[in-house]
Design goal:
By secondary structure, the chain is mostly helical. Helices cover 74% and strands 0% of the residues. The chain starts with 20 loop residues before the first helix and ends in a 7-residue tail after the last helix. The protein has eight helices and no strands. The chain is globular, with a radius of gyration of 22 Å.
Length: 243
């Protein structure tokens, strides 16, 4: 849809065929979905990575250290491209070899984007969660063990609640980062907020206006996330005396 010279740019944000508001809304929803799913994958990998780094087995320590070191050393965009082209190809071959899929199987850009962001942010969350666990006084864990608590019960009642409280600031920061880095997955064909802004800007040639609108929507997402994360942090720290 092209904007006529005498037409207000703001009319281009109308809903439906006459504007781009529905495309921006769709892009925002997909950005949140990609970020949330990728964050959950990263959180799972972060828990496994933290466990590996805190393990008494040196082989697991080395695997955890190698994972975080490699991810921190390489640019996110390069990692997304590597994971998309190499990772999806390897996954398809494994599934075909196992007889679970045909050679025509195609990994969707959404799945590839979630997997790439989750793998990347799992490394950052690994050290955040590890730090949260190490901040817990060892005496509490030893006391729980002395009372006969098993490993899972100790984790659920002693480690997890306190780890979350210590790790929330870092986890919140990574959530804000992943919502911004979700724009990088447009290079592998995943549709998200930046793709919507680029489409509107390219079609109308109003690059400054529509990229500014995209920036404002990202800002709104970040501010909303900060408000929600602030509430979660206060909730997690209720009853804790500040010094």
């Amino acid at each position: 849809m092209a904007i006529q010279p005498d037409q207000s740019l703001w009319l281009g944000l109308a809903w439906g065929d006459t504007g781009w508001a529905d495309e921006f809304a769709h892009g925002l929803v997909l950005t949140i979905e990609i970020s949330l799913c990728g964050y959950l994958v990263g959180l799972t990998l972060g828990m496994l990575g933290a466990g590996a780094k805190l393990s008494l087995h040196k082989s697991l320590n080395r695997i955890g250290d190698a994972y975080t070191t490699i991810i921190r050393a390489l640019p996110e965009l390069l990692l997304i491209l590597l994971i998309y082209y190499a990772g999806t190809s390897a996954l398809v071959k494994i599934l075909v070899f196992a007889g679970l899929a045909s050679e025509e199987l195609q990994i969707s850009p959404f799945t590839a984007a979630v997997s790439a962001l989750g793998f990347i942010y799992g490394a950052y969350l690994t050290d955040i969660l590890r730090g949260g666990i190490e901040a817990i006084h060892r005496g509490q864990i030893e006391a729980a063990r002395a009372f006969g608590m098993g490993g899972l019960l100790r984790f659920r009642r002693i480690i997890l609640p306190q780890m979350i409280r210590y790790a929330i600031p870092g986890m919140a920061n990574q959530w804000l980062n992943i919502t911004k880095d979700s724009s990088l997955v447009s290079v592998i064909g995943a549709y998200e907020l930046l793709s919507a802004g680029r489409g509107a800007a390219t079609a109308t040639k109003q690059y400054v206006f529509y990229y500014s609108v995209t920036a404002m929507v990202f800002l709104l997402l970040s501010v909303s996330s900060m408000v929600l994360l602030g509430f979660i942090e206060r909730r997690a720290n209720r009853g804790v005396r500040r010094v």
